[in-house]
């Protein structure tokens, strides 16, 4: 097999939910890097609630 210099990295993912609402996905990569990606529908809900603050 030829060495192309590319690293192979594995990842594990966990879907996050809160009270049945999908929040996002937490992905853990080899080497200890973790990335949290928010679900687009959840982000839209959060943005709407921030804009509708009563005065």
Question: Can you tell me about this structure?
Answer:
- The chain is 22% helix and 40% strand.
- With 55 residues, the chain is an alpha+beta fold.
- The model has no long low-confidence stretch (mean pLDDT 85).
Provide the low-confidence segments as ranges.
Answer: none
Helix content: 10-25%
Dominant shape: elongated
Rg? 18 Å
Note the gap between the termini. Answer: 67 Å
Find the structural class using helix and strand composition. Answer: alpha+beta
Overall mean pLDDT score?
A: 85
Brief summary:
This protein has 1 helix and 3 strands, in the order βββα.
Strand and helix layout:
Blueprint: E1 11-18, E2 21-29, E3 34-38, H1 40-51
Antiparallel strand pairs: 1-2, 2-3
Which structural traits does this protein have?
single chain, 55 residues, alpha+beta, 3-stranded antiparallel beta sheet, 1 helix, 3 strands, 40% strand, elongated
